[in-house]
Amino acid sequence: MNGCNIENKKLINRINRIEGQVKALKGRLIEEINCEDSKDPYEIIRQLRAIRGAVNGMINSYIEHFAKEHLLKEIRQESDEAKALATMDSLIDIIKYGIK
Predict the structure, then answer these.
(1) Which has more confidence, 94 or 37?
(2) Residue 41, SS3?
């Protein structure tokens, strides 16, 4: 389980960075509401794209960790190939459609 602890710490660090990006964006939007700032209007779009990229990167990292550490064990322990494939299909459905 040590691998899980290390991976979870990495994910928490990523969440903290994303949280910082979101807070910075919120501050920027508040400045614009109060008309205190007239900086580059495209900066908000850049910040949103950076946040989306960070979240997508985190999703990919978690999926990779889950597949290598948990899903692989689950499939190897499964004696019924159809059930093993169903387990893999569940992950694929979540990745593609966001469903359980």
Answers:
(1) 94
(2) coil
Task: Say if CB 98 and CB 59 are below 8 A apart.
Answer: no
Domain that holds residue 79: 2-97
| 2 Cβ contact list (under 8 Å, min separation 6) | none
Residue pLDDT, tens place only, 14-38: 999 999 999 999 998 888 776 655 6
CATH of the domain at 59: 1.20.58.1000
Full-model pTM: 0.73
CA-based nearest residue to 72, from 58, 88, 86: 88
The domain total for the chain is 1
